[in-house]
Amino acid sequence: MNEETARPPRPGTSTTDRPRALVLRALGLGDLLTVVPALRALRRRLPAHEIVLAAPERLTGPALATGVVDRLLPASAAGRAVPTGLPWTGPPPDLAVDLHGNGPPSHLLLQSLRPGRLLAYAHPDTPDIEGPAWRDDEHERDRWCRLLSWYGIEADPTDVRIPSPPLPSPAPRAVVVHPGADAGARRWPPERFAAVARDLAGRGHRVVVTAGAGEEATGQYVAREAGLSADAVLGGAEDVPFDRLTALVAHARCVIVGDTGLAHLATALGTPSVVLFGPVAPRLWGPPADPRHRALWHPDGDDAARPGDAHGAEPDERLLRITPEEVLAAVRDLPEPCLPSAAAAAQAPVPGR
């Protein structure tokens, strides 16, 4: 095999003669996992197509782990903006699907590739696109399934599960505590995460603290204040590799997390979770109705769907209304008892202390 033959294809280069469907969702992990039901509906409707997801390159592992994406096309922009271009090569896509937003930037980006057909929400500034009307007060999973259903592609917003990885867990049956989030508005104070972790560890649980890239200081603080060893923290200097993270969550006793990507991963794997909400209502981004998942939220009297700024720098006041005692009570109420009896806890060794 010569060097040219062995060289991997350039990003955006197809390795198949199948028809191609391009899906734009150039956002984060949680955003990807909320469109798994829509992606699965596309896969069922287009079994002969190569489904290409335009998303940040760091989501290659998660995208392929869904089992419904064939290839990732690297695409990203600052914040939640629309990329200015896509490294697409070859003939135009047979189908393009806008799962990124509802405005002209994403519409025009996909139209620039001259797809055979474009599925998107209607917008007055792109009147040539026929599609359903956008609704602000709609759960993210429902929104994209409704889009496809409008075009005759039946999608089930509860079809969220992804396969568990074949890897063994780095900490089987651990309680996973994840104190990080992309924005300060959705970060519960680390000292409260530490209080929860300390209580759980004191009852005999193995507690693992996960940290994304750049969150090492927060993760180590939570572990230290909880009386855990430094090796109880996974990640921090960089993200935990997705296959290892997925194995951890898939075999965890439960996950305690804010409104961020790891919460959606717990949902996708069917792992019990307690999810803490602040600036955005659970009805827009929360887990599906399922006794395995508890969403904690203390809205103001008007119960607005978006009472705060999800990307603000400081913890949202509604998030701060959640107490460690409330989180521990929610853990106790999960279907599988996550807290052993006081007698058993008194006799059990305390890992990581």
Distance between the termini: 54 Å
Largest sheet: spatial strand order: 8-7-6-9-10-11
- The run of helices and strands is HEHHEHEEHEHEHEHEHEHEHEHHH
Q: Judging from the principal axes of the Cα atoms, what is the shape?
A: globular
Number of domains: 2
**Whole-angstrom Rg:** 21 Å
Uncertain stretches: 1-12, 339-353
CATH superfamily of the largest domain: Glycogen Phosphorylase B
Q: Describe the largest sheet.
A: 6 strands, parallel
Find the structural class using helix and strand composition: alpha/beta
SS element count, helices: 14
Mean pLDDT: 91
Quickly name the level 1 CATH class of the largest domain. Alpha Beta
Helix percent reads 25-40%
Strand content: 5-15%
CATH architecture descriptor text of the largest domain: 3-Layer(aba) Sandwich
Number of strands: 11
Q: According to CATH, what is the topology of the largest domain?
A: Rossmann fold
Give a description of the structure:
Residues 1-12 and 339-353 have low confidence and may be disordered. The protein is built from 14 helices and 11 strands. The strands form 2 sheets. It has a 6-stranded parallel sheet with strand order 8-7-6-9-10-11, with helices on both faces. Strands 3-2-1-4-5 form a 5-stranded parallel sheet, sandwiched between helices. The longest helix is centred in the middle third of the chain and has 13 residues, at 190-202. 31% of the residues lie in helices and 13% in strands. The protein is of the alpha/beta class. It has 2 domains: 18-150, Glycogen Phosphorylase B (Rossmann fold); 175-347, Glycogen Phosphorylase B (Rossmann fold), CATH 3.40.50.
